[in-house]
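for ur thesis appendix - Bacteriophage abortive infection AbiH. copy paste whatever u need, i formatted it the way the template wanted (i think)
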Amino acid sequence: MEINRKYEEIFSEMIKKEEISKKLDDNLPDEFLPASTMILNFNYTCTVEQYLTYFLPNMREVIKVNYIHGQLNNPENPLIFGFGDDYDRNYEELEESPMNELKEHLKSFWYFRTENYHNLIKFIEADDYQVYIMGHSCGQSDKTMLKMIFEHPQCKAIKIYYHQKNKYENDFKKLTYEIARHFSNKLKMRELITPLKKCMPLPQANVINHYKKVK
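the 3d part is after this line
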């Protein structure tokens, strides 16, 4: 489709290595390392793979990248666009409609085309886990999936890496509003979301480059 071709052109742009901060020390004691990690990648590019190779080459065996919405230039993992809130008031009408064309851009029916969603389910069913949010808006478009992840009994914490806009402004509070919409159990929500003081801002490329110049 034309829209897929345009997205492929946008996401095919090369990542500049100077946008990556200094290499982290990957020789952490084993007791501080999780037995397994899944990066649920909502991006269509392999950007995260480049960061992992650069930062944590010795941990690649325990870190799995799940391209939940498809992968650029991979016909076996087609790009997924559309709406993913099966709890929406209008969803039932769409589902019951005999016009199957209306279901074309509902994410549920695209997830069946790969094993990505089932791999996610297997991961969260396997053991206790914590959720780290990096760069995702946590909006309604992915509500069904996020609700499953956040409200699962084995989810033990949700930690937000927020965007620090300037010295006084960040989007932490906005993200908590979005996350709250995925919880039916509000007491559980209060228990799981990590307080601001125990969270961190997500490093930005321009900030990283500024620090490198200062040094």
